[in-house]
Amino acid sequence: MPEAGRACRPKNFQGENTMSLKKIATRNVATLQTDATVLEAAKKMRDSHVGDVVIVKTEDGREVPVGILTDRDIVVSTVAFGVAPGVVTVEDVMAPTVTVAKTTDSLYHVLNLMKEHGIKRIPLVNSAGTLQGIVSSEDIVAILASELTDVVRITERQHDVEAQRRKRIA
Fold first, then answer.
1. What is the pTM of this model?
2. pLDDT tens across 75-133, in order?
3. Does residue 15 belong to any structural domain of this protein?
4. Could you tell me if residue 146 is inside a domain?
5. Domain holding 137: CATH number?
6. Number of domains composing the chain
7. Burial class (CB in 10 A: 0-12, 13-18, 19+), 89
8. What pLDDT shows up at residue 19?
9. Residue 29 and residue 22: Cα distance in Å, rounded?
């Protein structure tokens, strides 16, 4: 039995990336540069119907994630203190480091990163560090729910097959 709090994997697990993070990820990511204001971030979230903005720096024409700002960050770090969101930048409010995953990483790796860092969203980058998408815990729950539904269908199908066999025997 796995130790509490440890990732569960089959004993023969080889680290294969059977569920592509590219398929799970949101590809059209809301982004802003570090000098954008928190007010601009809030408007971007509203207009994009999202709860976060990935903060990027442009390096050689590539968007490289340097932070992430969530709707909760805005409330807890600015609004709750009475700070005007139009005068503070996203760089002032965002965490000083950002946890990213590579598009080639396994789902298990991303889940462990989320658990280890206590975060719900992880930007995905390619091998050059360029932003490729974002994965949220909600995205993972949706895909796992779909997989569990397939497991339930196995049992349902087993019953159907068994009923067909009994008809042939009887």
1. 0.77
2. 999 999 999 999 999 999 998 899 999 999 988 899 999 999 999 999 999 999 999 99
3. no
4. yes
5. 3.10.580.10
6. 1
7. middle
8. 66
9. 13
Query: Per the domain annotation, does 119 fall within a domain?
Result: yes
DSSP state of 81: G
98 lies in which domain range?
27-169
In the sheet with 52-59, reading across from the earlier edge strand, the strands are 31-33, 52-59, 62-70
Q: How far is CA 157 from the centre of its chain?
A: 33
| 10 has pLDDT over 70 | no
What does each C-alpha distance from 160 to 95, 152, 153 come to in angstroms?
54, 13, 10
- Measure the N-to-C terminal CA separation of the chain; round to a whole number of Å: 43
| Six token digits for residue 22 | 């590219």
**Rounded to whole angstroms, how far apart are CA atoms 121 and 25?**
10
Q: Residue 47 corresponds to which amino acid?
A: D
Answer for the pair 85, 78: CB distance below 8 angstroms, yes or no.
yes
Could you tell me if residue 80 is inside a domain? yes
